[in-house]
Design brief:
By secondary structure, this protein is an alpha+beta fold. About 40% of the residues lie in helices and about 20% in strands. The chain has a domain of about 150 residues: Beta Polymerase, domain 2. It has 6 helices and 6 strands, in the order ααβαβββαααββ. About 15% of the residues have low confidence.
Amino acid sequence: MAKAQRLRCPLTAADIRQNIRDIAGVRITCGLISDTYRVADLIGGQPDVTVLEVEDYIAKPKSNGYKSLHVAVEIPVFLSDRVVQVPVELQIRTIAMDFWASLEHKIYYKYQRSVPRRLLQELTEAADVAHRLDRKMERLHNEVAGLKSALDSDDGPLSLKAIDHDHGDRSQNRAGNHTTRPPGLSFDTRRQVVWMSAEPPHTSPNGALQDNTRE
């Protein structure tokens, strides 16, 4: 009711339903800035979800430093006799943004919205620090992802080509014939992966396989 009065909205159910889009609210915290937009796209792409409005306070922060992605949606609520479309506001932001917003809310609540100028200045500075942290973590994440992609390219993450080459000189049997055999234990220095497999079967002098299961 307080919000309806602040917005000068008539206090009828129909008017409130039409003008107030955050009757219900959901807060989603993500690790990275890019994740916030990815989550918003995933939710908005659901067939039973209708996106009403998007307010991007990450790209355009509020004057006090507040950052978050607000998405107003309608979702179906199934009653016993009908389906009702209910407006829900999604607040999607990073962990750093959420920490800042929670502290800012506590300060405003304590001072009843009359926050000393010094605290307002420190809050703004803290918002800048949180933003730089988010940007740095995004950059580190992309760097690690790029490194992993480079390691996984060409032969794939579990390539045995180098190992087969390293163990090629061990694949001779007693008769001097080359046989294909998996390595027992080896170390791929390119990817720092320890490879393990069962011991290869023994071969007789004539090249025939011997039964290793019986002593």
